[in-house]
Hints:
This protein is an all-alpha fold. The protein is built from nine helices and no strands. The protein has helices spanning 2-17, 29-33, 41-45, 47-57, 60-83, 99-111, 121-133, 139-155, 161-186. Helix 1 (2-17) runs parallel beside helix 5. The protein is globular and about 45 Å long. The two termini are 32 Å apart. The model is unreliable at 184-189 (pLDDT under 50).
Amino acid sequence: MALLGxxxxxxxxxxxxxxxxxxxxxxxxxxxxxxxxxQSWWLYAAFxxxxxxxxxxxxxxxxxxxxxxxxxxxxxxxxxxxxxxxxVPRPDPVTIDNAFLQQRLARLWQLxxxxxxxxxxxxxxxxxxxxxxxxxxxxxxxxxxxxxICLSTLTLKQHTAIDVAAGALLAxxxxxxxxxxxxxxxxxx
Length: 189
């Protein structure tokens, strides 16, 4: 179910990228200080199995909240992408020394255009997956993996610092919204 949701979300995300015209560039001084690290593609790509595993190992209640929060985050992000289309500057893949990573990033950037950056859904969904697994053993390892995935969006130049902060904030808001929704559903009338 989580894999189907990821594929459906990616399809809508990629389609929206093809119809919006980026008008904003939110590169900050911090973004200019963060180096491009092609090897962080491995962490960035770990997002997909991380989310599927989070869905598989979350309790039924946390999975339900994870699904609701993710759908809410996706809806809010689509509105932001439509209203505030951002251009995220990326390096030329031919500058990458490693042929394997050069191919992976060239393909990634063919599919994932340098737009639809803010808020970062990569960050928001990673944070939501971490929240869904926080009651499991090894939560600090899960949190560290989530943090590294989020940071990889900066070192891979997929997102700016503003995008990452907005993605983390979106995850927090969606977590709170679904937590309250879940509590309201359990209150006897």
